[in-house]
Amino acid sequence: MKFLDKLDLLMAEKGLNKREFSLQSGIPYMTIINFYKKGAENVKLLTLKKIAAYFNVSLDYIADDTITERGCNTANLNCFTGDEIAMIQAFRLADDDDKAIVNAALRKYYQQKDVQKMA
Description:
Blueprint lengths: L2 H11 L4 H8 L3 H10 L6 H11 L3 H5 L18 H12 L2 H23 L1
């Protein structure tokens, strides 16, 4: 299945049109339109990653026409959900103090998880 066929299928499954997909994924609308007008042979890797992350499918599935398995393993650090991408973007925009608060909260959370595993 070709890239645009996969993109059409994924958008249809979520009930999205191109504009809604653009708004929700953070991919510029004209970028998406140009896939259809000019072809999608030279899509940037960053754009492919955003698409894969938004739809929670593997980058291989999006980029390779011969791959039909969608799998996005949550252990795969190269595959992010839309929520994860939003969190990363927010973290990058945060100032150093806010980043320190987030990091402290995560450390505390995982320390509690380790204690629970030992109990």
